[in-house]
Design goal:
Structural class: mainly alpha
Low-confidence stretches: none
Number of domains: 1
Number of strands: 0
Order of helices and strands: HHHH
Length: 118
């Protein structure tokens, strides 16, 4: 039987992995739609809509208050989207984008770690 802290750690890991999966679906859906729009491929656009819809299901399976859920998720999404731009699409990421990402991640951390309303 797992001890309390180990169980809590596993739960947090599963939430983080769910956030990553949702972000991958959202970024993937956006990229698929972009590919369809730029290449004149309507089926890619439809596929992108389906992928984006699945992101919404995955992110809403996480048991957090709605505002906290999306506030924290925005940080994960921003991290994944900048990472995909940099490492998948080989884009040069401006210093201002990295600074903005740090601000977003700080905001997400404040939302996640701050006290909960009554």
């Amino acid at each position: 039987m797992a001890s309390g802290p180990l169980k809590l750690g596993l739960a947090q890991l599963l939430v983080f992995l769910s956030f990553l999966a949702a972000a991958a679906l959202e970024v993937g859906g956006d990229a698929t739609i972009r590919h369809g729009l730029r290449g004149g491929r309507p089926l890619w656009i439809v596929l992108g809509f389906l992928v984006l819809g699945s992101y919404g299901v995955v992110v809403n399976l996480i048991d957090l208050d709605f505002s906290r859920l999306l506030g924290v998720y925005v940080g994960v999404f921003a991290l994944v989207s900048v990472g995909v731009g940099r490492f998948v699409f080989a884009e040069r990421v401006a210093t201002s984008t990295w600074i903005g990402l740090a601000v977003i991640l700080l905001g997400s951390a404040i939302i996640q770690l701050g006290p909960r309303a009554g």
